[in-house]
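ok trying again, last paste got cut off:
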Amino acid sequence: MITRLKPPVLMIHGAFCGPWSLDGLKQKFEAAGYPVTAPALRFHNGARPPSALGTTGLADYAADLEAEMKALAAPPILVGHSMGGLLAQMLAARRKVAALVLLAPSAPWGIPPTTLFEIGAAQSLHMHPGYWNMVLEPSRDVALAHSLDKLPRHMRDEVFGRFVPESGRATFEIMNWGLDLNRASEVDADRVTAPLLFLTGSEDKINPPSTVERIAALYKGRATHEVLDGMGHWLIGEPGWEGLAKRSLEWLDEKFG
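nice, full thing came through this time. structure:
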């Protein structure tokens, strides 16, 4: 009997996080026979970041991840959460990949928000002039209210304690893309030929299902979008996140056995 080797997997974490946020998924994928690489984005390794983080953009993150991809034995499956889901789309438009699993991904350039919450969040950044060149510290109040709110209460402070600062430049490029003349977050969807699975939490405020549906529509039939009832933006670590891993692996096994 010939055993079919499964493609390597590159997991890309989201803003203010690190590879630790994908540990649960990584374990499930490895148990299913997928070799997984889960790097830290530049300046996200848990050490106090330099001021250069403030002007580190999406293009810098993507360049680092391209180097990771070149070291892999075959075109990988990209698994990206939030900002990592946007980076996965950018990479798939540049290099051959086997498939994409996008967990509540941030939208590429040109995809307008669908909720007042998204619009308000983007506008609120302008209360901090020059934020696009700053190192942004994670906000406990914002995280507890909008991204960790579905976690069990006893876990919330522990998880928030692992958050790290984020790039003001990358945040600007994602949340206020209409002002970004460089179009850093732009994705040429026609160049993404691999199949895509989008998974969104029904109660996600940051990247809600209605906006993610607009992203999926870019890919003209190559994308499947499913909404997970009762889940918010964090996804990883929430009660029921094992269902997210299960669905991802089922979808991949249909394609790679």
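cool. The longest helix spans residues 241-256. Residues 138 and 165 are 6 Å apart (CA to CA).
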